[in-house]
Write a structure and sequence with these properties.
With 275 residues, the chain is an alpha+beta fold. The protein contains seven helices and 13 strands. The chain has helices at 3-17, 28-37, 75-88, 148-161, 173-179, 225-236, 250-256, and strands at 42-46, 49-53, 65-68, 72-73, 96-101, 105-106, 114-127, 140-144, 185-192, 195-205, 208-216, 240-246, 262-272. The strands form two sheets. The protein has an eleven-stranded mixed sheet with strand order 1-2-3-5-13-7-12-11-10-9-8, sandwiched between helices. Strands 4-6 form a two-stranded parallel sheet. Strand 1 (42-46) and strand 2 (49-53) form a beta hairpin. The longest helix is centred in the N-terminal third of the chain and has 15 residues, at 3-17.
């Protein structure tokens, strides 16, 4: 790389990183998800939003995207954000993923630079209604993971529930294991009749907890184990949980029916695919 280009890139990273000094307004729903993403991504703040980058997996949209948080945006601003994304990353593909809350006003010209994806993610808070929870039985036991062996079981269940393969060679696994050693995170296994069937995790952010990683082993799904897990974990951590759920998830449909569930934001995925 020519010296002038190298200097320009270093300067751009330094200059843009000052966006962390001028952070966009903090939203609890963003802070909740960031309590998970910060273990993987560098997160750079700007007045218009944030850029998330994971160098280990630079083409994985879950960990590499631009999030717009400004009140409104248009094609010109989106072009600028895409260029900023390129300057901060070693990204080589044409496609850049955006996550844009539905509360953000998109000017009509956005279609010239973005293509809307069918997926969306919903940020919610919910308070477990114990009246709707299955009663605790002697066959049900919630166990906090404190050893690597327990965490390997946690990861096996989580991977089974998501049809993940080659699980201990997966780039996420060592970071999950490292997160389990941090006192800000709680990893749990739900046993039923001495069989580990469901896993989940909580991460602290401020005075709140973000619930994530909830999964039930393949072959044991749709049998009420997620509800059992939530009942048990809410007894240990009473109050409101934050969470991020795919808009088409059956779990979201179930939570919407319960009193105390609040949708904080819905973010749509968009793809920028210009040269």
């Amino acid at each position: 790389m020519p010296i002038s280009m190298a200097f320009a890139k270093v300067f751009m990273k330094h200059y843009l990183s000052r966006g962390t000094q001028l952070m966009t307004q903090s939203y609890d729903w963003q802070d909740a998800e960031d309590s998970f993403l910060k273990s993987f991504c560098s997160i750079t703040r700007f007045p218009w939003g944030s850029i998330y980058l994971w160098k280990n997996e630079p083409l994985w949209p879950k960990f590499n995207f631009a999030r717009i948080s400004a009140d409104q945006t248009n094609a010109t601003e989106i072009e600028k954000i895409a260029n900023t994304f390129r300057n901060l990353s070693d990204y080589t593909a044409k496609e850049i993923w955006f996550r844009i809350p539905r509360s953000v006003t998109l000017e009509s010209d956005w279609t010239t630079v973005l293509k809307k994806d069918s997926d969306a993610i919903v940020s919610i808070t919910y308070k477990n209604d114990l009246r709707e929870m299955p009663p605790k039985t002697n066959q049900t036991l919630l166990v906090r993971c404190t050893t690597e062996s327990q965490m390997r079981t946690w990861w096996e269940i989580n991977s089974s529930g998501r049809s993940r393969t080659h699980i201990f060679g997966n780039s996420i696994w060592p970071i999950i294991l490292e997160k389990s050693k941090n006192e800000e995170n709680f990893f749990y296994l739900l046993k039923h009749n001495n069989l580990n069937v469901t896993c989940g995790a909580l991460s602290k952010f401020g005075q709140n907890l973000n619930s994530w990683g909830l999964a039930t082993m393949s072959g044991y799904q749709k049998m009420g184990y997620s509800k059992m897990y939530l009942s048990e974990v809410s007894a240990l951590h009473p109050g409101v949980f934050y969470s991020q759920i795919d808009e088409d998830s059956p779990r979201l449909s179930s939570l919407k029916l319960r009193p105390g569930t609040e949708i904080l934001e819905i973010e749509d995925y968009y793809v920028y695919a210009h040269n």
